[in-house]
Amino acid sequence: MPKIGVSACVMGDQVRYDGGHKQSTFVTRQLQPHVTYQPICPEVGIGMPVPRPTIHLREMTDGIHLTDSRNGLIDHTDAMRTFFAKKLPVLEQLDGYVVAAKSPSCGMERIKVYDSEGQLLHRSGQGLFTQLLKEHFPHLPVEEDGRLNDAGLRESFITRVFVYHEFRHQVL
Ligand code: SF4
C-alpha cells in the first residue's frame, strides 16, 4: 500500500499557528482506505508551540529565509533544514506527499515572499520544507490539499502515487 506524507493539519491535527486545522475530507475519508499516512508538521517539528506567532519567507542577500513575521529577527531557516535532514529516513519511504496550501513551510506554490524590510515582494514562493522535499525527491508526487478538490488533478496525483510506489518497489 502506498505511503503518503501529509501536512499534519490536513489530517485534522490542531497544529496551525492559531491552534486550528485544515482537515481535508478527501484525504481523511476517500483516500484513506487505499494508502497509509505519515503526518508531519514541520513548524511543530522545529519546536514551535501551538498556537504560535506567524512566520513568513523573507528574501535576504543570501537567499530566502524563514523568519518571524514581525521584524524578521528570529530566523528559523537552519532549524527547518536540520529538521528536514533528520526526517530524511522517513521521507525516503514515501510514495507521495499532500501539503497544506499558503504555508511558508508547507505550501507548494504562490507563497508570499517579503523583502528584508518586511514589504511584500511577490507571491510566487514555495514553503521551505516543501522546497527541500522537491529538491531531494524531484520525482516524488507532491500536491496541495486544495488542488485535490479538482477531479482531474486528484486522479493525476493518485495515478502518479501508485506508479511511483510500483517503481520504488521494483528498484529497491
Ligand atoms: Fe504545520 Fe505545515 Fe500545517 Fe503549518 S501548514 S500547521 S507547518 S503542517
Summarize the structure.
The protein has five helices and eight strands; from the N terminus they run βαβαββαβββαβα. It has 172 residues and is of the alpha/beta class.
Describe the structure in your own words:
The protein is of the alpha/beta class and 172 residues long. It has one domain (3-53, 79-109, 127-171). Helix content is 32%, strand content 23%. The strands form 2 sheets. It has a 4-stranded parallel beta sheet with strand order 2-1-5-8. The protein is globular, with a radius of gyration of 16 Å. Bound molecules: iron/sulfur cluster. Iron/sulfur cluster binds at residues 7-9, 15-16, 41-43, 100, 103, 105-106.
Major sheet details: 4 strands, parallel
- State the helical fraction: 25-40%
Structurally, how many domains make up the residues?
1
Bound compounds, please? iron/sulfur cluster
SSE class: alpha/beta
What is the string of SSEs from the N terminus onward? Answer: EHEHEEHEEEHEH
Q: Low-confidence parts, pLDDT < 50 over ≥5 residues?
A: none
Number of strand elements: 8
- How many whole angstroms does the radius of gyration measure? 16 Å
- Largest sheet, spatial ordering of strands: 2-1-5-8
The helix tally amounts to: 5
Shape, principal axes of CA atoms:
globular
Distance between the termini: 15 Å
What fraction of residues sit in β-strands?
A: 15-25%
Write out key terms for the chains shown.
single chain; 172 residues; alpha/beta; four-stranded parallel beta sheet; four-stranded mixed beta sheet; 5 helices; 32% helix; 23% strand; globular; binds iron/sulfur cluster; DUF1722 domain-containing protein
